[in-house]
Design goal:
single chain, 264 residues, alpha/beta, two-stranded antiparallel sheet, 9 strands, oxidoreductase activity
């Protein structure tokens, strides 16, 4: 796909972290960007900064998502690139010791269901609504390409740590969806890929830094090379390549500095 000012994109979670870096990279290339986020003040400010449009969207709510797509399309036309970075997830070990009640407890099924909704179901919601719009658009090139969808998975999908049953399971489901969805959409010329970031310097990790600097430093040192946390701009760089390169399809790509974390 040719990346220029004729292309519109939607980036979920675009007010911060990986989404913000992706939105900026796309806007810097001339793309018309709509940001989906629940952080209204930050989202409005950043959208104004990059010349985009902000849509207050809750990825757990179908009507909210539909309204966001409608607003983005009214402003920029049919999106041809969707980058889904927003997530709602929880954690907890399958069974752990409850010091307060002096007994073992399990992570509630409802907590797992919430993560499934905020990771897997929300990813399908965003991707399928985008695909329906793209299906009705004219092809962009001789390949018949109509658009590309980039989901955010995680290295935890393959390498989940203690306490990541909900998160790793949800991200694993995203990975499992990519290839069949790409095949579902192949006759429409819509590509589907996922990026599996490792440990990145985004808001969750920055909160770790504020709480325990030694833990934060240890996370970076655990990466084989380069021995540091990933930069959001490095994630955005891969987003740009996946958008440009029409031969990338049905792929789940690790972006993690070769980290393979043993359980701790």
């Amino acid at each position: 796909m040719k990346i220029d000012n004729t292309i519109a994109a939607i980036v979920t979670g675009g007010a911060s972290g990986l989404g913000r870096a992706s939105a900026k990279a796309l806007a810097d290339a001339g793309v018309k960007v709509a940001i989906f986020d629940i952080s209204e003040e930050a989202g409005e400010e950043f959208a104004k900064e990059i010349g985009g449009v902000f849509c207050n969207v809750n990825i757990l709510d179908e009507e909210s998502v539909e309204a966001g797509f409608a607003k983005a399309r009214e402003a920029h036309g049919q999106e041809r690139i969707v980058v889904h970075c927003a997530v709602v997830a929880g954690g907890g070990k399958t069974v752990s010791w409850d010091k307060k009640n002096n007994c073992y407890k399990r992570t509630a099924t409802e907590q797992i269901a919430k993560s499934a909704e905020g990771i897997f179901t929300a990813s399908y919601r965003i991707a399928s609504i985008a695909a329906l719009g793209m299906a009705n658009a004219e092809p962009l090139n001789d390949d018949g390409e109509r658009g590309c969808i980039i989901l955010t998975s995680s290295a935890a999908a393959q390498d989940g740590q203690i306490g990541q049953v909900a998160y790793g399971g949800g991200k694993g489901a995203v990975n499992a969806m990519v290839l069949p969805m790409a095949r579902d959409l192949m006759d429409l010329g819509i590509r589907v890929n996922a990026i599996m970031p490792g440990t990145f310097a985004t808001p969750p990790m920055l909160r770790v830094k504020d709480m325990a600097p030694e833990v934060f430093e240890g996370l970076g040192k655990a990466v084989p090379f380069p021995r540091r946390l990933g930069k959001p701009e490095e994630f955005a760089s891969l987003v740009m390549e996946l958008s440009r390169n029409t031969y990338f399809n049905g792929q789940c790509i690790r972006l993690d500095g070769a980290i393979r974390m043993p359980p701790k």
